[in-house]
Amino acid sequence: MKLTDIKILGGLKKAGYKTHTVKDEIRNNLIKKIKNKETIFEGIIGYENTVVPSVMNSLLARHDIILLGLRGQAKTKMARMLTSLLDEYIPIVKGSEINDNPFHPISKHAVDMIEEMGDETEIEWITREQRYSEKLATPDVNIADLIGDIDPIKAANQRLHYSHEGAIHFGIIPRTNRGIFVINELPDLQPRIQVGLLNIMQEKDIQIRGFNIRIPLDVLMVFTANPEDYTNRGNIITPLKDRIDSQIITHYPKNLEDGIEITDTYSWTKRTDGKVTIPYYFKEIIEMTAMQARVSEFVDQKSGVSARLTISSMENLISNAERRAIVNNEDDIYLRVCDINAILPGMTGKMELVFEGEQEGAIKVSKALLSKAVREIFRKYFPDPLQKRKKTDKPQEDVYAEMVEWFQNGGKINIKDDMSFKDYFKELKKVDGLEKFVKKYSQYYETEFELASLMEFVLDGLHQSSKIAKDDMDSIVSYKDMVGSMFTQEKGYGEYDDDFNFKY
């Protein structure tokens, strides 16, 4: 017989069932998971040696927690994952609004029921998901929402005095009794409402409409907050901060690999209409763009640059390639360097600029960041066109000379956004020495699609190193001689470097 088949209090006693406080329950289950080497926060990347150990320590200490960090740092995601540390099912007194423990009832309904029925008191089982509640802190949240209020209709129907517990309509926190309650963006909660949380967290009683009602709630309180909020929109009152046992600081990915893994995990890359090929350097460019935005003097660092930027950027990048494949009736979806412009809509709305101006300001900054990222990643895969040559007896060969000379002699190629692969590859092959160079210096291709993409990557790298010029007009990208284009070029995503000198 399963425990969940037990329907009365006496059955629980006979089975020897024991209950624990929610914090003890979480602590016990956490200990089991640690011993069994189980992953507690599945899909949380880059926190293995920083945030996760701090959270685990706090839970072992039976602490209420606040996760403090900038936007897009998985604070809410981690809070929601705490439900995995709850028991799969727990018993409550049947009909209880606040999940009364059958062995330690606290509401008048449950107390009266057990006094009357004894061991025959009916129970029901609730799941761990039913024991989790979450509230986004907004200025309009009131005490009634969180704690409760007098229900005059209830009082009238049952002929109860307003001070009687039976006249109360309980708020979301009492209804989460024996569970986990999360408040997101805590500083946005008005100070007078934050005061209402003090007694719940320490003295375990609540006050409604001037009537003191002692209800020893059993709740794990978890809060999230953005440091920006302390000055911009609100703050956390000092007595509440004092009652929150542990403050845990979150952070953005500390290296390129962690950022790429996050983007791979959460972005929608598998499309139904064709096989998607994503060369690794595209992932690096996108993540490098985000990392540079997080140190840029033009981006408001107090607001942060969330991981959503890289996720949206990757999805837009793939979608541009997918659209082209649909137009040309091609089965394979492959990325081109000219697709990078499609990233911009996924970037501009996710960065707060230091100097807010016209709408084009965000676009200019985004293009400059992309330009810098392309240049950095290009140097990882190919020789640096700007690297100073060592003084040796033998003159060193300029590996890019043949390609650059072709453009100097009047060569020019035009790449349309929606041109077929056949035409795209044919256009790139016009450049003397380009295909030969890629085959010599790169082993990062298996198909012609990847080879062609690398060829354009080299051209863009030469442009970012000021060896050739690039015009980016609407849906056409042109590569041509640097000198011949000085007075005619249109600015693409890589033409703003002189105006934006980023710090590292």
Supply the CATH architecture of the largest domain. 3-Layer(aba) Sandwich
Quick one: overall form? elongated
Spatial strand sequence of the major β-sheet: 4-7-10-1-11
How many domain regions? 2
Rg, Å, rounded: 31 Å
Give the class from helix and strand content and strand pairing. Answer: alpha/beta
Please indicate the percent range of residues in DSSP E strands (runs of 2 or more). Answer: 5-15%
CATH level-four homologous superfamily name of the largest domain:
P-loop containing nucleotide triphosphate hydrolases
Counted beta strands: 16
- Output the CATH topology of the largest domain: Rossmann fold
The residue ranges in which pLDDT falls below 50 over 5 or more consecutive positions are 494-504
Q: Would you tell me the overall average pLDDT?
A: 86
Helix content: 25-40%
Task: Please give the count of helices.
Answer: 20
Q: Span from first to last CA?
A: 64 Å
- CATH domain class of the largest domain: Alpha Beta
Largest beta-sheet details: 5 strands, parallel
